[in-house]
Design brief:
There is one protein chain. This protein is of the alpha/beta class. The protein folds into two domains: 91 residues, Beta Barrel (Elongation Factor Tu (Ef-tu), domain 3); 125 residues, 3-Layer(aba) Sandwich (Rossmann fold). Helix content is 23%, strand content 33%. The protein has five helices and twelve strands. The strands form two sheets. Strands 4-3-6-1-2-5 form a six-stranded antiparallel sheet. A six-stranded parallel sheet has the order 10-9-8-7-11-12, with helices on both faces. The longest helix has 13 residues. The mean pLDDT is 95.
């Protein structure tokens, strides 16, 4: 990984517990859609976050879920608040978009795992990808949702794109799907054999979904998630 000094261009809340960070690198950066960076707290303390921006974007976008006041993630947010410049190391990861594939695609994420699939979605839009692209994003409740309109607009630019947000607990105003994020997918698609699947979320969730999707026809060599290295 290359260490890069970045100016903090923007820090703003997306929800009560999710922050959008925009960083302006001081030098040209190169990464592939679906990779991550390490936020450098010190030489011994480097914390990974998926890159939400596309490789062609001028700024590096992160979406950081931070809950407790002194949590691992909130410490990063406080560092960003207190400094005009920060350092990152990038790129990392092996679950990047396979540019040599021309198969239908499923992008699936839980919570701020959305960062990972947003980067890939942006790249597919830029490439004018012609195969079906199904985007499933799972969240706990409607109050946890953000960037729904922006994601729908991105998906609408694809020739055959669908965006399916899913909440576990709906209120009377929610118009979308309800349940676990994978449940609508298994209802919508008869078999996943022909798809490339890109997944992000809690390690236990990704491990569970790998087995569920294989049982639904998915091929292990066409399933991608950095979590696979840890489960």
């Amino acid at each position: 990984m290359n260490r890069i000094r970045c100016q903090v261009a923007s820090l703003q809340p997306l929800t009560n517990t999710v922050f959008q960070v925009l960083l302006k690198p001081e030098q040209a950066v190169s990464f592939e859609a679906g990779q991550y960076l390490n936020f450098v707290m010190s030489d011994e303390d480097k914390r990974p976050f998926s890159i939400a921006s596309s490789p062609s974007d001028a700024l590096i976008e992160l979406q950081i879920g931070a809950f407790a006041a002194d949590s691992w993630a909130m410490q990063v947010i406080e560092r960003i608040k207190d400094n005009e410049y920060v350092e990152v190391e990038m790129p990392g990861g092996v679950a990047q978009l396979r540019r040599d594939s021309n198969r239908p695609i499923v992008l699936l994420a839980g919570g701020t795992g959305f960062s990972y699939i947003k980067s890939i979605l942006g790249e597919l839009v830029e490439r004018n990808y012609q195969q079906p692209v199904l985007v499933y994003w799972g969240l706990r409740e409607p109050a946890a949702c953000y960037q729904l309109a922006e994601t729908q607009a991105m998906t609408d630019k694809l020739a055959h794109g669908q965006f399916i947000p899913v909440v576990e607990s709906a209120d009377e105003h929610w118009q979308g799907r309800v349940g676990k994020v994978h449940e609508p997918l298994l209802k919508d698609v008869v078999s996943l054999e022909s798809y490339d699947l890109y997944m992000a979320g809690r390690f236990d969730m990704v491990g569970f979904l790998r087995n569920e999707f294989i049982n639904h026809g998915a091929l292990s060599e066409h399933m991608f998630a950095d979590a696979f290295a840890f489960i």
